[in-house]
């Protein structure tokens, strides 16, 4: 999962980036509204953490432009303002949730997890697919009651497919959501990670290759329906 943090306070920006990365996310950052708007307009993000009081272009304007241009990624706004009218303005501009400064980073992480889950149609922090459980809160995957030993990239890939269970996800989409903007992206590495995951899933055929299109995570009962 790939997150954009738009925050002009350098210390807070770095703190959020570090916490999100520790939680297993790939994170891009911007220090002003103009840069943030550009990134959100040109890169695919699973969620955006957006400060309202930004230089060059304020957060409300950034958000309004994204929504006017059809950008639908979940947005969590950060504001130091306590007035309820500022929060209402953010929600009316298209924000999905808000946190008022000062805040605990754990609250931001929890709200980001919730926004990503809801965007993918999941209500619980545990996403289930047959014998597989992806615990988004603890950043771990469990099969048949056993916690899998996964690298950060393997977990990100498995988590992304689990969030989009039943959907065909292209290699390009996976690359765009698993690596930050500065990474030397190579879609061939996705095949390597998928191969490793299939071995670690202990014989459970949950990741299907859709020839010419990409991959799809399918629960066993859905596979049986197709076969029947």
TrEMBL record:
A GO MF label: transcription cis-regulatory region binding
Residue stretches making up the OmpR/PhoB-type domain: 124-219
One Gene Ontology biological process: regulation of DNA-templated transcription
InterPro entries: CheY-like_superfamily, OmpR/PhoB-type_DNA-bd, Sig_transdc_resp-reg_C-effctor, Sig_transdc_resp-reg_receiver, WalR-like, WH-like_DNA-bd_sf
Domain Response regulatory stretches: 2-116
Residues recorded with modification 4-aspartylphosphate: 51
Pfam families for this protein: Response_reg, Trans_reg_C
SUPFAM superfamilies documented for this protein: C-terminal effector domain of the bipartite response regulators, CheY-like
DNA bind region: 124-219
Keyword entries, A-Z: DNA-binding, Phosphoprotein, Transcription, Transcription regulation, Two-component regulatory system
Cellular component annotations (GO), alphabetically ordered: cytosol; protein-DNA complex
Protein name as annotated: Response regulator transcription factor
Lineage: Bacteria, Pseudomonadati, Pseudomonadota, Alphaproteobacteria, Hyphomicrobiales
